[in-house]
Amino acid sequence: MRAAVVGHIEWMEFVPVEEVPGPGEIVHAEDSWEEAAGGGSVAAVQLSKLADSVDFFTALGHDEKAELARAELTARGIVVHATSVDARQRRGFTFVDEAGERTITTIGRKQHPRGHDESLPWHELGKCDCVYFCAGDSDALLLARRARVLVATARELATLRQASVELDALVSSGKDEAERYHTGQIDPEPRLVV
């Protein structure tokens, strides 16, 4: 199976703590680590564990963090198709508490691919069995519809409404209001809401 992701990357520093600090509180950590994160990058990594191949359509900034993200994802066997953005790579900081809850702060503007960007091989999406759309403009979403199966996140409802494409599945959240879908929010209705 050939899969693709259309989405974004953030270079994230993760810090494990007993609990997330309250206002004015200081907590201490023994360690931290950094890696490519963000909805698109995480989805590409997870799909790479299931699919024969994964293409990742994204945007990368012009700095060391962007190159680290590209290198990490490429080392995992993901084919990274990235347009260049004249900005620093979006990055962030995440507290991870003992219960596994994460508290995220992103730094910088979300960078995502745009369908009119001719530097990206959009024709490859037509060769994919499935595409997961988690960030991009409406043109990128229309191009993603070329795949046999198109899945998207409810976090991108504004783009989904604008593009008005039929989704095979929409991933919604039962806990996060920013990722929750209610019937009638997009037209046409997705075939399946997960």
Compile the SSE list and pairings.
Layout: E1 2-6, E2 10-16, E3 33-37, H1 39-48, E4 53-60, H2 64-75, E5 78-84, E6 91-96, E7 102-107, E8 130-133, H3 138-144, E9 149-153, H4 157-163, E10 169-171
Parallel strand pairs: 1-4, 1-8, 2-6, 4-5, 8-9, 9-10
Antiparallel strand pairs: 2-3, 6-7
Task: Provide a descriptive summary of the structure in words.
The protein is of the alpha/beta class and 194 residues long. The chain has four helices and ten strands. The strands form two sheets. A six-stranded parallel beta sheet has the order 5-4-1-8-9-10, sandwiched between helices. The mean pLDDT is 96.
Question: What would you say about this model in short?
Answer:
The protein has 4 helices and 10 strands, in the order E-E-E-H-E-H-E-E-E-E-H-E-H-E. By secondary structure, the protein is α/β, with parallel strands linked by helices.
